[in-house]
Amino acid sequence: MSNLDLFLAMEEGRPLPRAPNVSEVRTKVALPPSRLPGLDYALNPYVGCQHDCLYCYAPYVTKRPRSEWTNVLARTDLPLVLSREIKGKKGVIGLGTVTDPYQEAERHLLITRRCLMEIIPHGLKVSVLTKSDLILRDLELYRELPGEVGLTVTSISDALSREFEPGAPLPAKRLDALRQFSDAGINAYALVGPLLPVLEEKDAAELVDALVDTGIKWIMLDRFRSRPGMFHDIRSRCGGEIIGDRLESAHLRKDYKGLEAFIRKRCSETGLRCVDAF
Ligand code: SF4
Q1: For residue 204, what is the domain's CATH number?
Q2: 210 occurs within a structural domain
Q3: pTM
Q4: Is position 240 within any domain?
Q5: Is 233 touching ligand 1 by the criterion CB < 6 Å?
Q6: Integer Cα distance of 143 and 199 in angstroms
Q7: Within a domain: residue 55?
Q8: Domain residues for 39?
């Protein structure tokens, strides 16, 4: 089934083919207020996330069991509910404040894309954050939206990415997406975060240099946010103690402030503006 057929199927209310571990859920509220700085509303097309990052703290915030996090609920009616709620609203919409709006399910379901099409005529700003180069599919829509496009890049190492973000596209694809948004004159930035417990200064230097090469003008720095039970869950999910123990002990020993200072210095030397996340 082509994307156009899928789009028509949704418009006409026909059943959709299902990707594994994806089911539909009804939307109660499309634009709840956001408590994140700089954002007025939160828009999340999916509950749960197929990127399955080891460090993800969203399940602990949303109180969804970590073991169910990759069983994704898709809000297929979100564009319709949004079209009713958005009238008269002003401000900034945070797209993907809890889960990734360009995780694999979006490739077929197009919920994020249809939401963007609803937002454009109303002129609200959109601040989107993703780990996927699938966002390039919607580059032309972002040309029409004021706001910012963020891609998370935690290292340039494929090995670290596979370990920490097993369901997400590799760093080179995210860097390429940043380059394309930057070349298109769109306000693009990289979220460098969370700082991985195993990241060394040489890795951070390579990362900053790679980000400078994309042409973006700024990055956002975020810390590793552990939650009670997170390392216990990592041990259970990785089928043993080795990864969980290694990460927890690296996290406890890590001099994050020193690493942050190193990254800020590298940014100022290379002309990249560096701001802190909330
Ligand atoms: S992309 Fe974000 S929401 Fe998805 S698993 Fe990773 S950290 Fe969690």
Answers
A1: 3.20.20.70
A2: yes
A3: 0.91
A4: yes
A5: no
A6: 34
A7: yes
A8: 21-276
- Residue pair 270/205 in contact (Cβ under 8 Å)? The answer is no
Buried b (16+ CB within 10 A) or exposed e, 201-221: eebbbebbebbbebebebbbb
CA terminus-to-terminus distance, the chain: 41
Tokens of 276: 């802190």
Q: 54: Cβ below 6 Å to ligand 1?
A: no
154 lines ligand 1 (CB under 6 A): no
Average pLDDT of the chain is: 92
pLDDT at position 11 is: 58
Tell how far CA 26 is from the center of its chain. Answer: 22
Domain count for the chain: 1
Ligand 1 atom with minimal separation from the 96 CA = 3
52 lines ligand 1 (CB under 6 A): yes
Q: How far is the CA of 209 from the centre of ligand 1 (A)?
A: 24
- The protein residue with its alpha carbon nearest to ligand 1, atom 6, reads 53
